[in-house]
Amino acid sequence: MQVLRPTPSATVPPALPTTTRPRTVPPPIRHAARSGVGVMLVAALVLSACQDKHGDDRQPVPRDGGTLHVVIGGALAHLDPQRVYAVTEANVSRLLTRTLTTFRSVPGAGASEVVGDLATDAGRPSERNQVWDFTLKDGVRWEDGSPVTCADVKYGIQRSFAPQFADGAQYPSQYLQPNRQPYTGPFAASADDAGLRSIECLTPQSIRFRLKQPVGDFGYAVALSVFAPVPAAKDTKEAYDRRPFANGPYKVESSTAQELVLTRNPFWQRRTDTVRGAHPDRIVITWRNDTTVVTANLIDSAGTWADTIAIDRDAAPNFVQQIINDPVLARRAVVGSTGGVRYFALNTRTIPDLTCRQALTYALNKRRLRSALGGFVVGEFAATMLAPQLKSHREFDLYGSLANPDGDPERAMRMLQQAAADRPCPTRIRLAYPNSSDVARAISTVVESYQRVGIEVVRRPYPSQSYYSTGIGNPANGNDMMWAGWVPDWPNGSAVIPPQFDGRHVPKDGSAGNTNYANFNDPQINAMIDDALAESNLERQYRLWGALDEAIQAKAVSIPVFYIKALRMAGANVRNGFIHPQFGQPDLCALYLA
Question: Which of 319, 494, 344 is nearest to 407 (CA)?
């Protein structure tokens, strides 16, 4: 899942039938803070952020009512569940749209546990995890009072096969058995009336999925918005992106170029929903990309800023020490670790030579880059794409960047000179990033890193709103290096490696929604991915994903920079903020006003 995206917890397999995936765990302190002072500051911040305003661990009863204000860094690209994929969109979407399963809305290890949402449980697998059955709960209704049915679920998933929804998650097409004739969604002129045959409505309340191959954690996959229901009669196609029909606790009151306003869905019933707190009466979401101004206003907490929280941007770096050292502000900080990784993708089409990509990896000064974003508070230095919170994580450091995060420019220069004469390394690279002030400031350190080895960097900023979907999401974007981040769609290697490195899923040029930003396609890696997905023994599967991570890093198609932590600020009246590992940001379902 694309990051714009933490919780300390424990690695225990959650209770899913037959096979499961791991919960997240708190990473050991290593690499990030070399001084004892740094470690103590983080510990103090986490401790104080977990306490209420009285300075103890009492958890008051949540209060219903009021208007919660939410600030995000850029306009939401999508609300249509079949197009929602970036984490902020997914966090907001959960207020409007329920899925067959979802993640619990609690801090700690429990947040990585999937439970029935529209469905009565997390799914019942059979035929060695290749067939999955779900039963819908009674009493779940749309915003007009009509019941949610199996036909709605099937129709919603079928929409994801339409070409115009290619920028959403691709798990349905990757996992579900295909029709004999390629299925291209319900809008096609030649659309099959029976739809996708691998989704069967046994009754209006019972649904069966037939998969291409065994998928042991399919119960987690259907927690994603792309598997959400849509009533065919309410489908407005492209316009659905602005005003999806709701079955969650909120519905869209208005959606403009400046803000999104949500009000209560009168037909949502708390008895059918064990996850969403839905405490505020209204939620107003606005976008502002000036992190410094937003942080200052949240610290002051005057007027409606007291009822406001910033969910997808960390506190501005120049305020971090003030927040850490002020007990009152520290109690309002929402902090946590994540299973996410901030990294650069290296385009294997434009930089096909392995030696050149390895040289770029050695040349990067990760310490200066991280410092520009706030220092150790934003995360620990990374050498892998599978974060330490995942059971599938394997410890390795192929390029020595944990021991030497300043980079190795001398080695990089030697490697640049060793490149084949008929395929020289580039002396000029195009670097893509979302156009926000904090990222632009950090990119300046990258420019300096490559200047040290004689490489000119051409900056290519993209609008934040469309950066992942149509910016770097088009395989033919022409960039050499791309700023990116990834938080697993669920905590296993199966939600990290295939979407980012399986070359068979790279769409044709001109398409949107590509998540294999490196355009990496290696037959040996693809075969190893198939072996890992088919492995039903989870302990063996974890080891396979870890081995894949190391094999991919040897190909130098991505440069992991740091394992993401979050430090988000809330106004003085906002309560129950915690970083949810599914989104890497405060869970909107849990917040309320004092």
Answer: 344
Q: Identify whether 495 is part of a domain.
A: yes
303 Cβ partners below 8 Å, 6+ apart? none
Count: domains in the chain: 2
What is the rounded CA–CA span in Å between residue 44 and residue 141? 45
In a domain, 357, yes or no: yes
**Residues 537, 419: one domain?**
yes
Residue 382's φ and ψ, nearest 5 degrees, are: -120, 150
Q: At what angle do helices 291-300 and 437-451 cross, to 10 degrees?
A: 130
Partnered with residue 380 across adjacent β-strands are 563
3-state secondary structure of 63: coil
Helix 409-418 and helix 354-363: axis angle, to 10°? 160
In a domain, 259, yes or no: no
Return all residues near 340 (Cβ < 8 A) that are at least 6 apart: 3, 5, 6, 387, 485, 486, 487, 488, 563, 564, 584
**How many CA atoms within 13 Å lie on the side-chain side of 394?**
19
Instruction: Check whether residue 358 and residue 236 sit in a common domain.
Output: no
- Both 235 and 351 in one domain: the answer is no
Domain containing residue 478: 36-40+336-566
Same domain, 362 and 469: yes
- Do 232 and 369 share a structural domain? no
* Alpha helix (H) residue ranges in 52-175: 87-96, 150-159, 171-175
Render pLDDT for 268-277 as a digit per residue (tens, 0 to 9).
Answer: 999 999 999 9
Q: Are 594 and 332 in contact (CB under 8 A)?
A: no
Q: Do residues 120 and 228 both lie within one domain?
A: yes
The Cα 32–Cα 379 span in angstroms is 7
Domain boundary among 248, 274, 296: 248
Which residues lie closer than 8 Å to 56 by C-beta, 6 or more apart?
none
What's the rounded Cα separation, in Å, for the pair 371 and 444? 12
To which H or E segment does residue 299 belong? helix 291-300
Phi, psi of 89, rounded to the nearest 5 degrees: -60, -45
Which CATH number fits the domain that encloses residue 512?
A: 3.10.105.10
Taking the chain (594 residues) in runs of 10, the rounded mean pLDDT of each run is 40 29 27 31 41 46 96 94 93 98 90 93 94 97 98 97 88 94 86 85 98 89 97 96 97 95 97 97 95 96 98 91 94 90 98 96 98 90 94 95 97 89 89 92 97 97 89 95 93 92 91 92 96 85 96 98 95 96 93 97
Both tokens of residue 66? 């009021």
Q: Please check whether residue 415 lies inside any domain of the structure.
A: yes
Q: Of 248, 283, 307, which residue constitutes the final position of a domain?
A: 248
In 288-391 the beta strands, taken as DSSP E runs, fall at 308-310, 333-346, 379-381
Instruction: Using alpha carbons, select from 150, 146, 27, 168 the residue that is nearest to residue 93.
Output: 168
Partner residues linked to 201 by β-bridges: 207
